[in-house]
Amino acid sequence: MKRVKYYLSTVQIKLAVLLFLCFSIGMTELKAQDSTNTAPVAKKKQFVKNTFNGNLLIDNQSVMVPIKGTFEFYIQHRFGTVSNGTTDLFGIYSGANMRLSASYVPVKNLQLGFGSTNDRMQVDGNLKYSILKQTKDKKIPVSVTFYGDAAMDTRAKNSSLPIVTTSDRFSFFSQLIIASKVCDFFSLQVSPSISYYNNVPAYTDDKGNVQPAMENQHVAISVGGKIRLSEGMSLLLNYDQPLTQHPMYNPHPNLSAALDFNTSGHDFQITFGNYGYLLQQDNNVLNQNDFTKGQYCIGFNISRLWNF
Description:
There is one protein chain. This protein has one domain (about 55-305): Porin (Beta Barrel), CATH 2.40.160.40. The chain is built from 2 helices and 16 strands. It has helices spanning about 1-35, 280-285; strands at about 55, 60, 70-80, 95-105, 110-115, 120-130, 145-155, 170-185, 185-195, 200-205, 210, 215-230, 235-240, 255-260, 265-275, 295-305. A hairpin with a 5-residue loop joins strand 10 (about 200-205) and strand 11. The longest helix has about 35 residues, at about 1-35. The N and C termini lie far apart (about 85 Å). The model is unreliable at about 1-10 and about 15-35 (pLDDT under 50).
């Protein structure tokens, strides 16, 4: 009897070992099949943040479009030129331009805005759309945004105004904004633009014929940058170059700088440049301030945002 028991226990051990080996081989094959058939998980794109601190880059739009549900209110102000010195306290007591505007982001990557400026009582509607966003891994090296604006002169019609039909009141602006956050403290932006006026100044030539003094369409390019000085302060630089040559009244280029103070809900810029208007088509087409003659304007941009 003892021998039978020993024989049975030996058989049981051998069977257990055999089953264990078969199970191990099967699991190894299953793992090999899983590793072969399962596709690699794609990494989620991580986009660069805070290329610029806000929507405004001195006199231009930045590449930034806030997140969905952001409402933002702006106050922009440009005093007169500093060239008169203390006579008008460097333009502060001279004539000034002011613009109030607001924008909202109803859906991802799309911002809609509305504004009003005291210059010619203009009202404008605008939109901004993020086409492409820079990624942290640099596979997408730049961000690209489109900005468009349509403005209307709402002054009452009279004989002194060059307005014949309603369409004469309108001007338009479109811009492609291309930017890159080069490193943590430096961002660069290049922005070609087209401005269009339905009605332009005219003059009478020697033969008595009325001729347009300017082209209806104007092409320009802007180059701007941000240098981060500290956690909440940056230096902004910008240069705008007109490209279209007009028969008369060619606009001057713009050279500007600003100190930008930024918090989670506010952006405040103290600006210094020779643009005196506040709509971009007006600055690009109508600017007659010459920075080589010291015709700069002190100004400021203030924005306040809320998220809903």
